[in-house]
Amino acid sequence: MADGVAFEVEFSDRNGRMFESIGLRPEQIIVLHFGLSTPDLKPEMVTA
Length: 48
Prior knowledge:
Elements lengths: L6 E6 L5 E7 L24
Antiparallel strand pairs: 1-2
């Protein structure tokens, strides 16, 4: 049980058409950040 804490997550395309909607507990979610890339952007490897 999530102690009453849950999130309704909707997956959709860029036109807003929904594919799926599910309820998830906070520990089931990771945050992803989307950013547009430019053609001249060079990939780089980052190590920790």
